Amino acid sequence: MNRFAFTNLPLRTRFLVAMGIVFIPLLAVAIGSSIFLGHAANTLNQVVEQPVYKLQTTTRLQNQIRKAHALVRDYAATPRYTLKDQFESEARAAEAVFIEMLGKPFFGPREQTLLANARREWKDSMVLANVVFSSDASRATLFQLDQRVNQIMFTLEQMYETFYAEISAQRTQINESEKGFLLIISATVGLGLLIAMAGAAWLARSVLVPLREFEKGVAHFSNENLSYRLTLNNQDEIGRLALEFNAMAERLLAHRHKLEELSVRDGLTGLYNRRELEKRLQQEIQRARRYRRPLSVLMLDIDHFKNVNDRYGHQAGDEALITVADLIQLNVRPVDVVCRYGGEELAVILPETDSEGAHTVAERIRGTVEDSVTTTPQGDTIHVTVSIGLAVFPRDGDTAASLIHAADQALYAAKQEGRNLVRSH
Ligand SMILES: Nc1nc2c(ncn2[C@@H]2O[C@H](COP(=O)(O)OP(=O)(O)OP(=O)(O)O)[C@@H](O)[C@H]2O)c(=O)[nH]1
């Protein structure tokens, strides 16, 4: 079965289809039963109606013949004309029954033959009866008549036997069709159950497989793996839910990146914060030690910054601080790490940079800041300078703390010597 096709169906339609599939066997059993029952009722009608008719008419015929025979015997004993009239009436009735029976197509060939024989015997008997009624009957004629009538009775008895044989044949036929019915019903129910099971499995699979995928996704989320995405191509409600799930994961991941970024950055300048400086400096020290590479650190402080705040206001001071931070970033390489160490004090980690290189960078920064101005929103023009202290690994310190301390001491020296200067430890 094409998985794509049925996962495109909405769940509601899918449930309805599955319900329909479950009802198919019931419908099939109902249709099969009604067809069979119609057939069985027809057979039963034949079984019941035809033999009953045959038995009834045969009995009627026997009675008629007995009655007519009795009238002949009575006449022979005591001749009376009324008996002859009665005989003729009974004889006609018997003949009518013969004609009626012979006209029925459901009498089998053997029955037809027996019936024809009986009728012939009856015709012969009537000839003998007329002899009796013509008053010259002898005892021998009566004897012959009795024999004929007995023969007719015997023939009709034989017909009974054929009826019973017919009934037992029909019973066998009913048993056969009963077996056939059971077979059809079992096959229909079996097939129906298979279809129902397949329908149920199809429905369960179309819902459970995506649910398992969701379960996996949620497990990844619990383990803080926000980059996991559900790979469901369903076009149904579950597919839409999966899309929403993935979009939510995307948003959460973006928020997490933002939070991570915020946790390592300074809100005012956008530079790395002090904690990140210490972390990165430790990493750079390890790297420099392992690969015997140069590493330098700069500590920068804006000169007379208190005066800037006092004169132009704290906000203008902030603007100046941001300008200096931007200028530093413009004057270093992308691999260099610029941080706000605290207040108006900034720091720069310079990987792969020796004392000479660090000095060049520091001078460049100092010169650029000296040459620049900050224009505040109020229209004031602020001019600041920076003092820079420089320390080199491992000469001036072989730990993060000792290296920062050394750079700080060099900065202090720069301040002491007049500010707007670069000094090494
Ligand atoms: N506007 C602003 N001012 C700050 C910020 N952080 C620290 N300051 C100010 O920077 C000034 C630092 O003053 P000091 O440490 O006395 O030093 P200075 O005035 O810069 O003088 P020197 O460092 O000796 O040249 C203080 O007035 C602080 O309030 C900040 O984020 N924004």
Record field, number of beta strands: 7
Number of helices: 11
**What shape does the CA trace take?**
rod-shaped
Pairing-aware structural class of the strands and helices? alpha+beta
In CATH, what is the class of the largest domain?
Mainly Alpha
Q: How many structural domains are formed by the residues?
A: 2
CATH fold-level assignment of the largest domain = Four Helix Bundle (Hemerythrin (Met), subunit A)
Can you describe this structure?
With 425 residues, this protein is an alpha+beta fold. The protein folds into two domains: 3-197, Four Helix Bundle (Hemerythrin (Met), subunit A); 274-424, Alpha-Beta Plaits, CATH 3.30.70. 73% of the residues lie in helices and 8% in strands. The chain contains eleven helices and seven strands. The chain has helices spanning 3-8, 11-77, 81-102, 109-133, 139-222, 237-264, 274-291, 305-312, 314-330, 355-371, 400-416, and strands at 295-302, 337-342, 345-351, 374-375, 381-382, 386-393, 422-424. The strands form two sheets. Strands 2-3-1-6-7 form a five-stranded mixed β-sheet, with helices on both faces. A two-stranded antiparallel sheet has the order 4-5. A hairpin with a 5-residue loop joins strand 4 and strand 5 (381-382). The two termini are 78 Å apart. The model has no long low-confidence stretch (mean pLDDT 89).
